[in-house]
Structures are given as C-alpha cells and as structure tokens.
Amino acid sequence: MLEAYRLALLSAIIYLNVNCAPSPEHIVYPKLLEARGINGTKLLHIKDGLTLALEKLSVLADSLVFTENNDGVATKTMINGTELEENLYQDRGKMAAVSVEEVDDTIQVMGVLNDKLRIAPLPLMPRSEEGHLAHRIYEMEPSMNHEEDDADTLPEQQARTKGRTRSASMKHVPDPFLVEVHVMVDEHHYKVFRRREDLVTYLALTIALVNMRYEDTSSPNIQFLLTSIQKEHRFARRFVEYDIDWPKANRTYADANRTFDDLLEKYGRSPADITV
C-alpha cells in the first residue's frame, strides 16, 4: 500500500510541478451551436477547425469537504458537488475538459482544449459583433524534459507471479472501481484563484483529464473521485538555487523529497485512497 501511495504521490508531484511556457495567444469568440452532435451532445464552436462535442462529466463527490484554516482553526465546509458539476463538460475524443457558464446572454469558457491548448475568458475585451465574449487560446509546452524509459520494470518471472496474485485478488473488486482522492493545495497554488468555486472547478477538470487517461483500464475500470480539498499555508518545501537555464540568476525550486516526507507524515493515514 505504501508503494502504491508513493507512486501516486510521485506522479502527482511531477504533474503539478511541470513548468509550462505559454506560446503566442489567439483571440476567439466561442459559441454553442444550435445543431447537436451524436447522442444529443452540445457542440461548442471554439474557432474554425475546432469544435467540441460536450458531454457532462462526473468527478466530484456529492458532498465535497473543503477545509481551510482560519486563525489556526481548521474550518470544514460541505460543498454540493452535484451543483458545481452542472457547468463541467468533456470531449473524450479531443481529451478536452472545460467549464461552460452562461454570462449575460453569452458563454464563458475555461479549461483544456487538448494536450497543448488552453482557453480562458477575456471579460475586459470588446465582444464580437454577435455579442460573444472574447477568449484567449494559448499553447502550453512543458519546460521539463521527461525520459520515457525512466520507469523500472519487474523481471519477467516476478511480473507473472504478481499478475496471478492480482487476478486472484481482483475477483471481489467492484467495476468500475472509484478511487477517492484528497487534494492538499498550498498557498502558492490557491492564491491565484479568487473564489473557492474557481479552485474546485480547476481541480475537477484536472481529475477529469486523469480519468480520460484511465478509461482503457479494465477488470476493473479505474476512475478517480474528488472527495475533499484542504488548503495549507506554507506547506510546500522550496529552495533557491542557480537557474539551470540562466546560471547568472537564481530560481526557486520545489523540494519534492522533503515535501513528500511532510505530506506522508501528516496525511499518511488519511481515509482517502490517495492524497496529493
């Protein structure tokens, strides 16, 4: 269990700490089309050549626990996850997850359009002649290089043994198998969100993208469910060192090992299946 916990946490740390550099932006005016897609899905036109077939997503617990510290006292708030999911959609074919809200007779879109493109509203810009809200599309490219063959592999005989053991133990596992996720958010992350709902929406869309990548799992099919969020103050460990891209300057880096040790000490016995 500890190994699985460590692997899940390590994967999350890598994911959350990948620095992305934005490329040139494009201004677009998204709109919902009157026509419907297959199975009655909504069609969201972003720009020529990019239209999303929207289907509702479900990644939040019905009652989501949101914990924050007020003057050193932990305060828990129950959030209606069903209500927050009303504006959340996905397009599995394009690996997209977006929030679509109606604002003053138009729509406001935020989220991920594919593995590189992101979209965010520009409420201060003039609207289109049709009255649609301006948005920016920007490309995010990872600035960290990941080796594809970093993962260790088990010897063949050991892998076969583990496979037989796994098959025997999976007979009584529900399918789909819902993995409850508790997310700890440090101030360096949550301070960019003006509202609590914006933070929850961001995390929900992130979980939705993870679920899409697990859709091909079987016996059982694994899906992740966000059940609780906790805001922490100065939890992530950091250190200042020379910038590897610009040696004459300093840069702040995440100290993943020390942060992991602190996280394991505080949340190692969390009732959730995974804490990130």
- Principal-axes shape call: globular
Question: What does the average pLDDT come to?
Answer: 79
N→C terminal distance? 15 Å
- Write down how many β-strands occur, each being a DSSP E stretch of 2 or more residues: 17
Keywords: Hydrolase, Metalloprotease, Protease, Signal
Organism: Ixodes ricinus (Common tick)
Region (Disordered): 144-169
Signal peptide: 1-20
Describe the protein.
This protein is 24% helix and 39% strand. The chain is globular. The chain has helices spanning 2-16, 81-84, 156-169, 187-190, 196-213, 256-267, and strands at residues 20-22, 26-28, 31-36, 42-47, 50-56, 60-70, 73-80, 88-91, 96-103, 106-112, 117-121, 135-142, 177-186, 222-232, 238-242, 250-254, 274-275. The strands form three sheets. Strands 1, 2, 3, 4, 5, 8, 9, 10, 11 and 12 form a ten-stranded antiparallel beta sheet that branches. The chain has a five-stranded mixed beta sheet with strand order 7-6-14-13-17. A two-stranded antiparallel ribbon has the order 15-16. It has one domain. The protein has 276 residues and is an alpha+beta fold. The protein starts with a helix and ends with a strand. The chain contains six helices and 17 strands.
What's the topology here?
Layout (H helix, E strand, L loop, with lengths): L1 H15 L3 E3 L3 E3 L2 E6 L5 E6 L2 E7 L3 E11 L2 E8 H4 L3 E4 L4 E8 L2 E7 L4 E5 L13 E8 L13 H14 L7 E10 H4 L5 H18 L8 E11 L5 E5 L7 E5 L1 H12 L6 E2 L1
Parallel strand pairs: 6-14, 13-14, 13-17
Antiparallel strand pairs: 1-12, 2-12, 3-4, 4-5, 5-8, 6-7, 8-9, 9-10, 10-11, 11-12, 15-16
